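for ur thesis appendix - Type I-D CRISPR-associated protein Cas7/Csc2. copy paste whatever u need, i formatted it the way the template wanted (i think)
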Amino acid sequence: MENWKDSYVRDILSTHLLTQIPLSPRRNYASIVVLREFESTAVLTTEGERLDVEVVRAGQKQTELISRVLLQKRKQVAMERRTGRAFNRKLGWADECDFMSKMCGSCPDCLIYGFAASSSEGSQKSRILTDSGFSIRPYDALQRSITLNAIQDRTQGGVAGSAFAEREHIRPQAYFPTIETAVDVTPSEFAYILRNILTTTRYGAENQRQGFVKNHLVALLFGETEVISNLALVQHLYDRLAEENSGSINEVPLDLQTLKTRMEELLSDIAEEAYLPVQLYTGESLQNILQGLRFLWRNEEAKHEWLQELKNDQQTYLEKRENKGKKEKKGKGKKKEES
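the 3d part is after this line
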């Protein structure tokens, strides 16, 4: 039976990631390319009834302006953090850690995704780089207005009351190519991040009743730099799809496998053009990593070993940070005495 320390996944991640969490930035990047497929209607709005949109170029070659629906960066990470925090509570880690009142500053969520100083001292910068995602298709092809009705429960037969609101939704099977980049993380932390992404299924407002998403992992990139933005990724993808469909994709049903294949091809091209070395994992090599992760999260012995390493990695970092703080405080005290 394979354990975590001798696993294929850890061997691969150890080749590219740090063995310890550094006190100072090392700019060691691990980018996770995800194709988010909405399998139900969803509300992607910050305020009001209208969807969040941005007017941008359709592609790098197809230069006409279009309005694209936005999947805001905080609405991606917030849901994935909640998945991770629920997992932490299940393990008995950081039961008292709370977004609104007091962050504990020592659980995996705090140390990876960061926190601002609240009632406790100190803060932690996020080691997850994110940006808003853009829909492949324009707003006009995705938008659908749904009227909300009030139900009069005192009326015999449950007759619906008058309509009281109308809200814009995106249609099912809308696709958002996005990239999340982990910086200066260890293999155990990276597995934690992947677990949050791959097991989160609800995004957007009113996600108790809609907003079901399938996160398809398309590629992993390791290196000393980021190679492409979310906007450039969707524009390059739009160009390739438009070339195959006589310049327009608005009326053509998008195929999941075609999207994944085109994304793999363009990421390979982009990685080749990078100024610094980039290691790209797609296709069979990526599937081997995913299969290893499935085994890890389903096997209690391997999972326990992984979690113990995660805990040790972060405890070592906290101790180093505390010792550094004591030395700096002591050095400031000596300077005051000398002055």
